[in-house]
Here is the input.
Amino acid sequence: MNISTFIAEFKSSLSNHYSEGELEQLSIHIFEDVMGYRRIDLALKKDEELPEVILEKLKAITSELKSNKPIQYILGYAWFAGIKFKVNPAVLIPRQETEELVEWIVKENSIGSPTVVDICSGSGCIGIAIKKMIPLSNVKGIDISTSAIELSRDNSDTLDIKVDFLEADILKLEIPYREVDIIVSNPPYVRSSEAALMKANVLEHEPHLALFVTDQDPLLFYKRLAKIGKESLKPGGKMYLEINENLGKETAEILELIGFHDISIRKDLNDKFRMIRAVK
Here is the structure.
Protein backbone atom coordinates (compact mmCIF):
# COMPACT_ATOMS: atom_id res chain seq x y z
CA MET A 1 0.00 0.00 0.00
CA ASN A 2 1.35 3.44 -0.86
CA ILE A 3 1.13 6.59 1.24
CA SER A 4 -1.70 8.15 -0.74
CA THR A 5 -3.89 5.05 -0.49
CA PHE A 6 -3.25 4.67 3.24
CA ILE A 7 -4.17 8.30 3.95
CA ALA A 8 -7.41 7.94 1.96
CA GLU A 9 -8.36 4.79 3.87
CA PHE A 10 -7.26 6.37 7.16
CA LYS A 11 -9.55 9.36 6.67
CA SER A 12 -12.46 7.21 5.50
CA SER A 13 -12.26 4.82 8.46
CA LEU A 14 -12.21 7.68 10.98
CA SER A 15 -14.70 10.02 9.31
CA ASN A 16 -17.34 9.33 11.97
CA HIS A 17 -14.95 10.28 14.75
CA TYR A 18 -13.16 13.40 13.51
CA SER A 19 -13.75 16.38 11.27
CA GLU A 20 -12.05 16.70 7.89
CA GLY A 21 -9.62 19.25 9.28
CA GLU A 22 -8.79 17.07 12.28
CA LEU A 23 -8.16 14.07 10.02
CA GLU A 24 -5.79 16.10 7.87
CA GLN A 25 -3.80 17.14 10.94
CA LEU A 26 -3.84 13.62 12.38
CA SER A 27 -2.51 12.11 9.16
CA ILE A 28 0.35 14.60 9.12
CA HIS A 29 1.02 14.02 12.81
CA ILE A 30 1.30 10.23 12.61
CA PHE A 31 3.51 10.23 9.52
CA GLU A 32 5.82 12.75 11.13
CA ASP A 33 6.05 10.54 14.21
CA VAL A 34 6.39 7.16 12.50
CA MET A 35 8.41 8.12 9.41
CA GLY A 36 9.69 11.62 10.06
CA TYR A 37 7.73 12.89 7.04
CA ARG A 38 6.33 16.41 6.96
CA ARG A 39 3.37 17.65 4.95
CA ILE A 40 5.53 18.43 1.92
CA ASP A 41 7.06 14.94 2.06
CA LEU A 42 3.60 13.34 1.99
CA ALA A 43 2.79 15.29 -1.16
CA LEU A 44 6.08 14.53 -2.90
CA LYS A 45 6.20 10.86 -1.88
CA LYS A 46 2.50 10.00 -2.12
CA ASP A 47 3.22 6.99 -4.37
CA GLU A 48 5.88 5.55 -2.09
CA GLU A 49 5.11 2.01 -0.94
CA LEU A 50 4.93 1.58 2.82
CA PRO A 51 7.09 -1.18 4.35
CA GLU A 52 5.02 -3.78 6.19
CA VAL A 53 6.47 -2.87 9.60
CA ILE A 54 5.54 0.80 9.07
CA LEU A 55 2.09 -0.11 7.79
CA GLU A 56 1.42 -2.19 10.90
CA LYS A 57 2.41 0.73 13.14
CA LEU A 58 0.10 3.08 11.24
CA LYS A 59 -2.77 0.60 11.42
CA ALA A 60 -2.28 0.18 15.17
CA ILE A 61 -2.48 3.95 15.66
CA THR A 62 -5.60 4.08 13.49
CA SER A 63 -7.23 1.39 15.62
CA GLU A 64 -6.56 3.33 18.81
CA LEU A 65 -7.92 6.52 17.26
CA LYS A 66 -11.17 4.68 16.53
CA SER A 67 -11.60 4.23 20.29
CA ASN A 68 -11.44 8.04 20.68
CA LYS A 69 -8.06 7.81 22.38
CA PRO A 70 -6.24 11.13 21.93
CA ILE A 71 -3.28 11.01 19.57
CA GLN A 72 -1.08 12.52 22.29
CA TYR A 73 -1.72 9.55 24.58
CA ILE A 74 -1.19 7.10 21.71
CA LEU A 75 2.19 8.59 20.81
CA GLY A 76 3.10 9.44 24.40
CA TYR A 77 3.90 13.11 23.96
CA ALA A 78 2.43 16.54 23.30
CA TRP A 79 3.96 19.83 22.19
CA PHE A 80 3.48 22.84 24.46
CA ALA A 81 5.18 26.23 24.08
CA GLY A 82 7.62 24.66 21.62
CA ILE A 83 8.62 21.94 24.10
CA LYS A 84 7.98 18.21 23.70
CA PHE A 85 6.38 16.86 26.88
CA LYS A 86 5.72 13.26 27.80
CA VAL A 87 2.02 12.72 28.55
CA ASN A 88 -0.15 9.83 29.66
CA PRO A 89 -3.76 9.38 30.84
CA ALA A 90 -2.79 10.50 34.36
CA VAL A 91 -2.52 14.11 33.15
CA LEU A 92 -4.45 16.50 30.96
CA ILE A 93 -3.16 17.02 27.46
CA PRO A 94 -1.54 20.49 27.29
CA ARG A 95 -3.64 22.94 25.29
CA GLN A 96 -3.03 26.05 23.24
CA GLU A 97 -5.21 28.16 25.54
CA THR A 98 -2.85 27.39 28.40
CA GLU A 99 0.12 28.45 26.26
CA GLU A 100 -1.51 31.88 26.11
CA LEU A 101 -1.56 32.00 29.91
CA VAL A 102 2.16 31.22 29.98
CA GLU A 103 2.83 33.91 27.37
CA TRP A 104 0.99 36.46 29.53
CA ILE A 105 3.09 35.53 32.56
CA VAL A 106 6.38 35.68 30.65
CA LYS A 107 5.54 39.00 29.02
CA GLU A 108 4.86 40.66 32.37
CA ASN A 109 7.58 39.00 34.46
CA SER A 110 10.59 38.25 32.25
CA ILE A 111 13.01 40.47 34.17
CA GLY A 112 14.64 39.24 37.36
CA SER A 113 14.35 35.92 39.16
CA PRO A 114 10.74 35.46 40.26
CA THR A 115 9.64 32.61 42.49
CA VAL A 116 6.78 30.84 40.72
CA VAL A 117 4.41 28.20 42.10
CA ASP A 118 2.35 26.18 39.62
CA ILE A 119 -0.63 24.64 41.43
CA CYS A 120 -2.42 21.64 39.87
CA SER A 121 0.70 21.19 37.77
CA GLY A 122 -0.23 17.99 35.89
CA SER A 123 2.44 17.13 33.32
CA GLY A 124 4.52 20.08 34.53
CA CYS A 125 4.13 21.89 31.22
CA ILE A 126 3.30 25.32 32.68
CA GLY A 127 6.09 25.45 35.22
CA ILE A 128 8.69 23.93 32.93
CA ALA A 129 7.78 26.30 30.08
CA ILE A 130 8.04 29.28 32.42
CA LYS A 131 11.42 28.10 33.70
CA LYS A 132 12.70 27.74 30.14
CA MET A 133 11.47 31.21 29.14
CA ILE A 134 12.57 32.90 32.39
CA PRO A 135 15.81 31.01 33.13
CA LEU A 136 16.53 32.79 36.43
CA SER A 137 13.11 31.95 37.85
CA ASN A 138 12.70 29.55 40.77
CA VAL A 139 9.75 27.33 39.88
CA LYS A 140 7.77 24.89 42.02
CA GLY A 141 4.91 22.61 41.01
CA ILE A 142 2.17 21.05 43.15
CA ASP A 143 -0.30 18.31 42.27
CA ILE A 144 -2.50 15.86 44.17
CA SER A 145 -1.78 12.95 41.81
CA THR A 146 1.19 10.69 42.48
CA SER A 147 1.25 9.64 38.83
CA ALA A 148 1.21 13.26 37.66
CA ILE A 149 4.07 14.18 39.98
CA GLU A 150 6.13 11.23 38.72
CA LEU A 151 5.53 12.28 35.11
CA SER A 152 6.29 15.96 35.73
CA ARG A 153 9.56 15.04 37.43
CA ASP A 154 10.38 12.80 34.47
CA ASN A 155 9.67 15.70 32.09
CA SER A 156 11.85 18.04 34.13
CA ASP A 157 14.72 15.53 34.15
CA THR A 158 14.39 14.56 30.48
CA LEU A 159 14.26 18.17 29.33
CA ASP A 160 16.99 19.21 31.79
CA ILE A 161 14.84 22.12 32.96
CA LYS A 162 14.94 22.27 36.75
CA VAL A 163 11.54 22.52 38.43
CA ASP A 164 10.75 21.03 41.86
CA PHE A 165 7.47 19.14 42.15
CA LEU A 166 5.55 18.39 45.35
CA GLU A 167 2.66 15.97 45.85
CA ALA A 168 -0.04 17.66 47.96
CA ASP A 169 -3.79 18.20 48.19
CA ILE A 170 -4.18 21.97 48.18
CA LEU A 171 -7.75 21.72 49.48
CA LYS A 172 -6.50 20.15 52.71
CA LEU A 173 -2.90 21.24 53.23
CA GLU A 174 -1.05 24.52 53.51
CA ILE A 175 1.55 24.95 50.80
CA PRO A 176 5.10 25.32 52.19
CA TYR A 177 6.04 28.40 50.18
CA ARG A 178 6.03 32.05 51.23
CA GLU A 179 7.21 35.31 49.65
CA VAL A 180 6.15 34.00 46.25
CA ASP A 181 6.15 36.34 43.25
CA ILE A 182 3.75 34.42 41.00
CA ILE A 183 1.12 31.74 41.51
CA VAL A 184 -0.25 30.13 38.38
CA SER A 185 -2.91 27.45 38.14
CA ASN A 186 -5.08 25.60 35.67
CA PRO A 187 -7.35 23.91 38.22
CA PRO A 188 -10.44 21.77 37.62
CA TYR A 189 -13.21 24.11 36.47
CA VAL A 190 -15.61 22.25 34.17
CA ARG A 191 -19.01 21.87 35.83
CA SER A 192 -20.55 18.40 35.79
CA SER A 193 -23.48 19.76 33.81
CA GLU A 194 -21.06 20.93 31.09
CA ALA A 195 -19.68 17.43 30.48
CA ALA A 196 -22.27 16.77 27.76
CA LEU A 197 -20.71 19.58 25.70
CA MET A 198 -17.27 17.96 25.68
CA LYS A 199 -15.78 15.72 23.01
CA ALA A 200 -15.71 11.96 23.52
CA ASN A 201 -11.92 11.78 23.39
CA VAL A 202 -11.73 14.12 26.39
CA LEU A 203 -14.56 12.54 28.40
CA GLU A 204 -13.46 8.97 27.84
CA HIS A 205 -9.71 9.33 28.27
CA GLU A 206 -8.56 12.46 30.12
CA PRO A 207 -8.50 12.41 33.95
CA HIS A 208 -11.79 13.60 35.43
CA LEU A 209 -9.98 14.54 38.64
CA ALA A 210 -8.21 17.30 36.71
CA LEU A 211 -11.30 18.42 34.78
CA PHE A 212 -14.50 18.46 36.77
CA VAL A 213 -16.08 20.23 39.71
CA THR A 214 -19.60 19.98 41.06
CA ASP A 215 -22.37 22.28 39.93
CA GLN A 216 -23.02 23.03 43.60
CA ASP A 217 -19.56 24.52 44.21
CA PRO A 218 -17.89 25.11 40.83
CA LEU A 219 -15.43 27.69 42.18
CA LEU A 220 -14.16 25.51 45.01
CA PHE A 221 -10.57 25.60 43.76
CA TYR A 222 -10.60 29.34 43.07
CA LYS A 223 -11.72 30.08 46.62
CA ARG A 224 -8.83 28.01 47.92
CA LEU A 225 -6.36 29.51 45.45
CA ALA A 226 -7.38 33.01 46.52
CA LYS A 227 -6.62 32.13 50.15
CA ILE A 228 -3.31 30.53 49.19
CA GLY A 229 -2.42 33.64 47.22
CA LYS A 230 -3.26 35.87 50.16
CA GLU A 231 -1.00 33.79 52.43
CA SER A 232 1.88 33.02 50.08
CA LEU A 233 2.31 35.91 47.65
CA LYS A 234 4.54 38.88 48.35
CA PRO A 235 2.86 42.29 48.38
CA GLY A 236 2.55 43.07 44.68
CA GLY A 237 2.73 39.38 43.81
CA LYS A 238 0.50 38.14 41.01
CA MET A 239 -1.90 35.29 40.50
CA TYR A 240 -2.59 33.98 36.98
CA LEU A 241 -5.42 31.49 36.55
CA GLU A 242 -7.11 29.66 33.71
CA ILE A 243 -10.87 29.93 34.22
CA ASN A 244 -14.26 28.66 33.14
CA GLU A 245 -15.37 30.97 30.34
CA ASN A 246 -18.83 31.23 31.93
CA LEU A 247 -17.62 32.11 35.43
CA GLY A 248 -15.15 34.93 34.86
CA LYS A 249 -17.13 37.56 36.75
CA GLU A 250 -17.69 35.24 39.70
CA THR A 251 -14.00 34.30 39.80
CA ALA A 252 -13.00 37.97 39.78
CA GLU A 253 -15.38 38.65 42.67
CA ILE A 254 -13.76 35.93 44.78
CA LEU A 255 -10.33 37.47 44.24
CA GLU A 256 -11.57 41.00 44.88
CA LEU A 257 -13.36 40.06 48.10
CA ILE A 258 -10.19 38.59 49.58
CA GLY A 259 -8.22 41.74 48.75
CA PHE A 260 -6.70 41.34 45.29
CA HIS A 261 -6.66 44.34 42.95
CA ASP A 262 -5.80 45.22 39.34
CA ILE A 263 -7.87 42.22 38.25
CA SER A 264 -7.85 41.60 34.52
CA ILE A 265 -9.73 38.97 32.51
CA ARG A 266 -8.53 38.05 29.02
CA LYS A 267 -9.99 36.18 26.09
CA ASP A 268 -8.13 33.37 24.37
CA LEU A 269 -7.65 32.95 20.62
CA ASN A 270 -11.12 31.38 20.45
CA ASP A 271 -12.64 34.60 21.82
CA LYS A 272 -13.55 32.98 25.14
CA PHE A 273 -12.86 34.51 28.54
CA ARG A 274 -10.19 32.05 29.64
CA MET A 275 -7.59 33.78 31.85
CA ILE A 276 -7.51 36.05 34.85
CA ARG A 277 -4.69 37.93 36.56
CA ALA A 278 -4.88 39.56 39.98
CA VAL A 279 -2.35 41.46 42.10
CA LYS A 280 -1.99 41.14 45.87
